[in-house]
């Protein structure tokens, strides 16, 4: 896929996140894209991302909901302003709250599909609803309340450099 | 500390979890203990557990809330039955739902203290409320609804071996 992901537009100095930062060599480096009004991210869990034998560790699933959610919030922020993700000022979101319902155990092995939809945009706050699909079955539902990082903090971090 | 942690009593075949399993060499291997009616766990984040520079990755904090919660649920289950954690049958809990409120950014560097209290026990379901303290400040609050793993599944996994 040559299309750039939401995370590819994060400014370098805000791009260290273990879940979604390109600069974090040890992290998950997730990549999220629009598919119409939904966003999607695929992730291949590793054998050590285990909960009990055969199933994915819930903390990983929560992390994927978290970072795909903040990524989608950023993309939604640019969309709401009718501008491309490579335009200034940079928008970056942090998680205010995270909720995850584990509907059924998530089998460890197949690629996970994390999907999201913008539920609400209210000023600097964006609510994202999400779900994870494995082999066509939704095993997890989640919701992220993301808040835009204050401009001063973005500026401060940008000045510090990557 | 020579006292055994909640997680040290997990049966080997249920002890692979990335967050809390002794058998997972690549995982967090958290250790939780009672302190009166509260349980406590200390965790040292690594430099790569970063969100934005200077702050801990929210997915890690969610994971710690998750696994310290299910550990505390197990310990509470034994307490409710007035028996030690090395007695049979083994009790093991999975997360049904997880909620995390990020009250303020969690500084990356100091050891984190994750604390929990049993809020409700209802049959096989235990609700655990939690909070994370750094340098004396509570930065995260969370709640885990944990459900006891069905006996058949415990038996099946025990028969498969570790």
Task: Describe this protein's structure.
- Chain A has 162 residues and is α+β, with helices and mostly antiparallel strands.
- In chain A, 20% of the residues lie in helices and 33% in strands.
- In chain A, strands 1-2-4-5-6-3 form a six-stranded antiparallel β-sheet, with helices on one face.
- In chain A, β5 and β6 form a beta hairpin.
- The mean pLDDT of chain A is 92.
- Chain A binds chain B through residues 13-14, 16-19, 21, 24-27, 48-53, 57-60, 62-64, 66-67, 92, 94-102, 105, 149, 153, 157, 160, and chain B through 13-14, 16-19, 21, 24-27, 48-53, 57-60, 62-64, 66-67, 92, 94-102, 105, 149, 153, 157, 160.
Short recap of the structure:
Chain A is 20% helix and 33% strand. Chain A has 2 helices and 6 strands. Chains A and B meet through helix 1, strand 3 and helix 2 of A and helix 1, strand 3 and helix 2 of B.
């Amino acid at each position: 896929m040559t299309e750039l992901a939401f995370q590819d537009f994060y400014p370098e100095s805000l791009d260290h996140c273990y879940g979604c930062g390109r600069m974090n060599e040890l992290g998950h480096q997730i990549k999220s894209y629009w598919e119409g009004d939904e966003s999607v991210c695929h992730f291949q869990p590793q054998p050590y991302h285990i909960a009990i034998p055969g199933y994915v560790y819930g903390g990983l699933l929560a992390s994927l909901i978290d970072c795909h959610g903040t990524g989608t919030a950023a993309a939604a922020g640019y969309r709401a302003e009718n501008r491309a993700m490579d335009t200034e000022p940079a928008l970056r979101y942090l998680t205010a709250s995270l909720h995850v319902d584990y509907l059924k155990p998530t089998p460890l092995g197949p690629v996970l599909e994390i999907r999201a939809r913008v539920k609400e945009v209210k000023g600097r706050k964006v609510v994202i609803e999400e779900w994870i699909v494995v082999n066509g079955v939704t095993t997890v539902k989640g919701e992220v309340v993301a808040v835009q990082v204050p401009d001063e903090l973005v500026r401060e971090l940008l000045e510090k450099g990557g």
